[in-house]
């Protein structure tokens, strides 16, 4: 009876070997699942970026409004007979180029 138990224990260990130490063991599966989740996150971000780029291309192909907006924002272009004002936040400057600190009331 003792040798039957020994044989069964050895068979159990032989069956457990691939699960713990063989190819495709549980640790490798866990690492691959983590890598898969990370890659899916990267793919989702890239898909969002691609969708935004497709929308930009579609806008540029369909109308001149998108082209005009890009020219104004990225290149600083203005229309003919148009005056461009740039308002800077901060302390006001007087006619001599001196900053006005405070005004008396």
Describe this protein's structure.
The structure is a single chain. This protein is mainly α. The chain has one domain (2-75). The chain has 3 helices and no strands. It is elongated, with a radius of gyration of 35 Å. The relative contact order is 0.04.
SSE run: HHH
Q: Please, what is the average pLDDT? A: 82
Structural class: mainly alpha
**Helical percentage:** 55-70%
Low-confidence stretches: none
Number of strand segments:
0
Largest sheet: none
* Number of discrete helical segments: 3
List keywords for this structure.
105 residues; mainly alpha
List the topology elements.
Elements: H1 2-20, H2 26-62, H3 64-75
Helix pairs in contact: 2-3
């Amino acid at each position: 009876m003792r040798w039957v138990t020994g044989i069964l224990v050895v068979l159990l260990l032989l069956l457990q070997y691939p699960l713990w130490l063989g190819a495709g063991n549980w640790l490798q599966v866990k690492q691959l699942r983590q890598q898969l989740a990370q890659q899916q996150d990267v793919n989702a971000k890239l898909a969002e970026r691609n969708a935004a780029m497709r929308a930009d291309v579609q806008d540029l192909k369909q109308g001149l409004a998108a082209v005009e907006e890009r020219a104004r924002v990225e290149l600083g272009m203005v229309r003919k007979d148009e005056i461009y004002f740039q308002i800077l936040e901060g302390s006001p400057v007087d006619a001599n180029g001196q900053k006005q600190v405070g005004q008396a009331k």
